[in-house]
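User: Sequence in, structure out. Go.
Assistant: Echoing your sequence, followed by the structure tokens.
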Amino acid sequence: MKAIAQNEIIALISDINAFADSAEALINSTQAKYDKERRMMFNSHSAVLSGLEKDYRAKCAAVSNKSDQTIREAGNILAEIDQLDRQLSAVDKYYVKTKKKKLELLANTTSEAYAGATDYFATLEKIKQEFNVLYKKYSEDILPGLINGLNYLFSSKRKKDYEDLIVLRNTVAAFVREIEEMLPPLTKERLAALKEEYFTTKGAVTERQKREAADFETRHNATLDMVAGKICGDLDEILPDELVSYLSAIMQNYAAGLYKVNSTNQLQDEVLDMIYIDYPVDFFVQSPIVASVIKSKCASLLVDGNIRMPIIMSTSDAPVWLIDTDNSNMSAVQSFIHSVMFGVMSSCPVARMTYQVVDPENRGNSISPFFDAKKKLPELFGERIFINRDDVAFEIGMLNEKIENILQNKLSNQYASIFDYAKENTDYFVNAEFLLLFDFPKGFDERTLSELRNIIRNGSRCGIYTIISYAPDSEESLSQEFRKNLRSIVELSAIIRQDDNGFSYKGLPLAYFAMPERTSSRSSSVNIC
């Protein structure tokens, strides 16, 4: 199984982030559109129902007011006729005499003009018109003359006018009695009819609005299905099932070979070592929906809610892992490097590998857990551990000679790496060398830094791999050439940053298989940072 380059993993994570942003934006815009249209529909429905209720209440108020007003105006006319009657009685003896003679005779007489009338409101209007005519005649034409004693001015028609006034009063009084009796129940019936009409109309409107709301939700659900389809399709392009299965399989395959020394002649899946980068889905992805889709897609890669992917040191694309220490926990840095050493011993045939250790500060004690292995397999650690400048210069020089020899005499322009060369030249066996630099750049000068830069650039093609524990001193005392070479080495390396006992790459937390303790079980030896 061919290894995957670390740059591809970082690019994949970047693609996942971009996908999450795009998917969240799509979901948010879809939700915002839904909320806006739903709010508009709700407001429209509310306005229709509110208008319907307002119209109903206005009609009820109009019916009640009209009924009350009719009774009130009829009573007012009767009161004004009575007032006029009192005024005439006070100043016109002829009116009193006529009234006395005709009152009993006309007691039950009402105007024929209103006989059989069924529209109280129209009847009232006619009464008001007739009253206005008579009232003007009496109050403006007759009464002032009577008050001034001008009885001689009245014609013989006055008797008829007085009789008309008596009949009008009888008519109004009868009308008042009738509407006071009949209008309240009629008004109540009309109000009941309006209420029934209102609730019938409201029910029909409500049902129509429910159908509109259901249709709206159906359309929205269809839109959500399309959005979900697009999101899943976009994620499939970034993370096809085959890629997810491959990543899962390569990590499982690597883990299956751990916790034992590789005593075979076969290199496992071209993998020299593997650490893991964790993508915390819930931290980077704000939308629970998008997070759920990503987790579902990457179910086989999930560890404690994080998507775990491999960062591989491989024969074809091996990074230089430079651990940028913060001096907070050097034991953690050593443990990390020990895990790399242990992983390499599980993957690479130990008979065809060598650790070249530069340890100027601790004088070899930085790899103390491997002392027993060094005693049993001294050739695994070369001739010695390099602790001073002369030793470092010698070893760096030897590795450069080896690189130049392989590049010129074996790889040339024909082979990408020494492992490719070995595949076609079966009598040649690759001896991989792993350069471990503790407390770097201690033990280096300008020349050895320049030579190390060549190792970093070309070493992996020649089976020489570098791991650096970087603990720089203040650059004030360093030469310009030293600083330049040092920056070049850092730029060529894959930077792993320390935070106490944790490590991260490209801002994402790392997890790794730690070297097992002698008394621990395999299941308890996995160190997750």
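User: And one key feature?
Assistant: The first helix runs from residue 6 to 91.
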